[in-house]
Input
Amino acid sequence: MEDLVNTLKLSYNDSPNSTSQASWGVVFIHGFPFDQTMWAAQVSALKGRCRTIAYDQRGHGKTPATGPYLFESLVDDLIGLLDHLKLQQAVLCGLSMGGYVALRAAERNPERVKGLVLCDTKSESDPDAARLNRAKDLAAIRKDGLNAFASAFARRTLTAATVQNNPQILAGVEKMIASNPVQGVEAALVALATRTDTTESLAKIKAPTLILVGEQDPITPPAASQKMHERIVGSTLVQLPNASHLSNLENTEAFNAALLSFLQTIAAR
Ligand code: MLT
Output
């Protein structure tokens, strides 16, 4: 469905639990440059167990591109969606860019966070080298187009074994990236370079936190997850074998097992 959130026609899917619309839910926040469908296996595993909401961030999937914006707008959109759905609290489950959004939301609006699932992400902002890489990616999209970028980027996010043995996963990721509005991908690259560093606030996080990372993730490596784990009191860290950056797609079984067990402890609180 689509609803107006922060003057934006935000596309999202709200799946109720078996009985009713619960007062809390799990909000899935996708990475760059993907869309809400990357969470299909998690939404399906939670069907009937708890309310799940997956949405397309601005300029991704079916949510239109808006022109330039700073990273903070993605956090405004998330909080706007919670307000729109009258969700006082949510478990925020974000992968990579989605994790950056979740971490900033936890820093800014801790009262809205019932739990955090930080997947293949980190608290640091972009160092200069990463900003320069964003400039290269932007230039590559303008020169060679989004399809070529999709093909190259998808390979950066998966293990060599997945690329070789699971062509359907690779093709699915390529298609997801290439289906985005090109202006949305360009704007997100710029916005990512403007995000703030949330490392200092990690020690203040009170919400139960699960940290998941693919053992072979080169983009947001296990060392970055370990750092967050050391700073977030009481957090749990699970490293997922046979997985790179898109650990929820590459090792769905282990990812979902960790997610389900974490959500059970939240529901019991
Ligand atoms: C993502 O998966 O969201 C991106 O790789 C994050 C980033 O480029 O920093």
